[in-house]
User: Fold these one by one.
Assistant:
Number 1:
Amino acid sequence: MTAAARVLRLLVERGETLAVAESLTGGLVAAELTSVPGASQAFRGSVTAYATALKAKILDVDGDLLAERGAVDPEVARQMAAGVRRALDADWGISTTGVAGPEPQDGQPVGTVHIAVAGPLGVEKVSALRLNGSRTEIREESVRSALGLLADLLLGEHRENARAQDTEQIGGN
């Protein structure tokens, strides 16, 4: 099962939805998700905010932050995930921002990538990656990493909820 299929299955089981904000991946996360039959049961949509100004205008990323640090920043990734979650009215938001190459950007070397997840009840996770390879390889690994981060969070919550239910059942006997 692909990472996209796993994420979508978990979301459908939970009755939750997902939205995606992409920069360096340019729509690849959304393409991976929509390649799974039945994706529309959980996938709401995506925003490809390749231009830095769109991150502020559409995803509500702080303009001062973008001016100070540039688009390749963990806090920018966090705000993109939270912003797409709000903008597309989804339970979960994931984002990708970084430098796929061939040249450095905003003082960051090629292969610098930040991915983030924002979810219900204030769940947030940001991951910084240092990837090697071609532009294509960096973008593809960014997609895998973003979907993997969300899957880990969903599975972690699933395990926590299952343990809580087991405890309730044991305590109730």
Number 2:
Amino acid sequence: MRIATYNVEWFTGLFDEQDQLIKDGSWSSRRDVTKAEQIDALSVVFQTLDSDAIMVIEAPDQNGRRSTVAALEGFANAFDLRTNKAIIGFSNDTQQEIALLYDPDVVRVKHNPHGSFDAPRFDQEFHIDLDVDENQDIVQFSKPPLELELTTLTNQTLRLIGVHLKSKAPHGARNAADVMRISIANRRKQLAQAIWLRRRVVRYLEANEHLIVLGDLNDGPGLDEYEDLFGRSSVEIVMGEKGKNCLHDPHARAALSRRLGAKPTTSRFYIHKDKRFLQALLDYIMVSESLRSKRPEWRIWHPFDDQACWHDPKLRQALLTASDHFPVTLDLDI
């Protein structure tokens, strides 16, 4: 079985108010890329991935007029993808949903959110003292994680949690002091969300569930100037550190094990002021210890770093055109 995660930059901008693809020469939200070019590139990437299930980060919008499921299923049917069914959980107001595209002939999927006293359901509120002032702060997810129960043809059950954690930019800052104050406050909220997610992870692991946490954590070792202030990244919190109830992702572990030298990357952003590209490790597929016996194989579909992608000019260009993130896949014997 192949499971993927893929952050598609502003996927919602490729659909009209009737959830139909806008395949024309107008500009997409990608720099110097038209909607038709991005759509064609995405079709190449999705077809080549040939996954049984794909966690789509920044999926098309869900609101009173638009449907994430209709948009994704329309996209799948337009390009004859076998992952032609879609499911979402709790929608949000950011126009960037979390959804799963899957092959209904291979897996059965249902939204199965959980909640407990110390880890409420992800569409609710989490109470935690963020600034150590002995007062409880209220934390909410701007993009509630997607909790799914996935059943295979062999009746194996997997728990999937699709995530998109993000620390907001310091909007409203008037000076450098404001930037620091707001950035630190937003960073605290992101780490609180990671703690909330971690508590749910531990509950699944303690129940001996097969668990996969996948998506964009927008955070990792060495990525944030405030990392030293807080000591840990969201990635480290969610995965767990040495001991029981840890999740595993070889790319995250490789990045955590070294301060210098080459590290895996899953995204590529153009920095206008520096006139250069920045690469970062933002996308992960973390698995429970119980799945490490299923011969897991991870792959980052990086157009320059993955040899097969590099030697396929059509796929290489499609990966660069489709999004500022690259897909990550996990193959499992299950």
Number 3:
Amino acid sequence: MFTGGRFEHLAGGGDRHQVANRFTAEDLIAVQTLSVTVPAPVALDLLEGPLGVQLSELLRGIPTGTDLAEAAASVVTDGSPAHQAWSLLVNQRNVGWVIAGKLLARKRPRLLPAYDRVVRCALGRPPSFWTELRTALRERDGALHHRLLDLRRSAGLPQTVSALRVADVAIWMAHPAPGHRCP
């Protein structure tokens, strides 16, 4: 029913071994399922240019198969390869923080959350969203992380849907603002 339901799984996922450290055309389509489009010059640079080469190097330094709740703090702090990749993407013409975040969430769906205007409106603007979300997922012996996994199970979703994706959908579904607009 919602195209976003294909975000993590389109073409086998952006984090599958064969493509985990490079952006593909499937990744560009996957972010479109979340209502964003990567500008064509940036998309071409991701696929065939120096931007893609730089990001591939950074992606190699970002763990795959690790949940944010289990990751070391250093994985998402300022200066980490994840933060460097996000900064590199954000600084591309007409990309910005929403598209950058969704591209990285596609490549590391268990580790890096999609952070967009709806999530920001619902949760506020913490100084470091990744770090603060990691802390929240780990508090009280991982209660929030386990609750998200329980929600995934209750909804009958496959285990390949990340806890972060469950959180994203739950926030979108519960967001009270008409049309998801913030005051």
Number 4:
Amino acid sequence: MSKRIALLSAVAFSALAFTVTVIAPASAEDKMMKNDKMSGEKTVMVGGAAMFPSRNIIQNAVNSRDHTTLVAAVKAAGLVETLEGKGPFTVFAPTNAAFGKLPAGTVDTLVKPENKATLTRILTYHVVAGKLAASDLADGQKLKTVEGEELTVRKAGGKVMIVDARGGSSTVAISNVNQSNGVIHVVDTVLMPAS
């Protein structure tokens, strides 16, 4: 009889554990997707988080685990308020891995208060006034950045590349991440102005 009770208890416990697993979301990402379905917004996943078109660039970027370095740099440069503004802006947003391609110590040096002007120039070089979808970008097109210098668009093999003033090239990894105040195109390399 005690074996039967033990077996029934084990079955009941397993069923309860299964029910809790099915009812409770497995992760924050699952919760985000649930919110996405509830909101009815068409989102794009970036850095493990849904990017909501009803939120501004900063409100979305802070949720991407792939853009923590960019967010820290934007804060250090004092650009949060600007990128929360009306815009619209097109932002070529480098990932943490993109910042990791820079020479060792570069990011740590740039976020120091005494280098704020240089950091601001680099970050605003990734921003273009207006909202440009990937379909708006043509091969050879010149884009005037908020920093003042130009970027050049290159298209080849179905990919969009952005070429900086020094000849460095960055590939758009995720395009058309719509925001309430513009659009983000995730890029794999930090773009550098000439000066």
